[in-house]
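Input sequence (203 aa), recorded before submission:
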Amino acid sequence: LNPLGCALYKNRKEAIEFIVSLNNELLDQAIDLSLNNCWAGALETLTLFNANRVREKINNRHQKFSERTWYEAVHLSLTQNWQDLLQTLVDGRQGLAASALIKAVIYGKNLLAVQFLLVHYHLDFRMTDENNFSLLHHAAKSGSKELIDFLLAMGLNPSAINAAFQMPVHVACGTGNLEAVKVLMPYFRSTRSPLQVRLLRQV
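Predicted structure, token format:
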């Protein structure tokens, strides 16, 4: 990496701001690098430096974004309250709705993004992926207490079993997310059935 890339990768704010202040070409280069590599922290730093330019670049490039870059752009638009850009991003990539929602849970830990996508796309929050992971399994993997509380309040089953015969609490334990374990453990104790006990002995 060149010095700019190193500063962006580590999100060294003072170095980023100094380098991109040298000329507009370096600013554009920094925005492109951050988008291409999904460096969320660097994108936030660049937005503080020149929000209008970041917004303009996203608007001009969004049709060519990878799925992960598209999600980062959605996340940034939500946090910055860029409603018109958010609408453009969502309308331009209708096919990414379900997978983006799951990635919002896993990567973003962003409750606002989850709520927005659920409402905008009228999605079934009980969806599962190819491994029978529910959104609650993904939230347990991410370790976001806020998301777990929200999904439980929405009625998702804390005893649901994925393709590996794991409940969300097992996923949380496996990834070492103590806060998630604390939230989910009481549901595990109170909802175990004889069938689940037998299945768990096989794990």
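Checked by second reader. The two ends are 44 Å apart (CA to CA).
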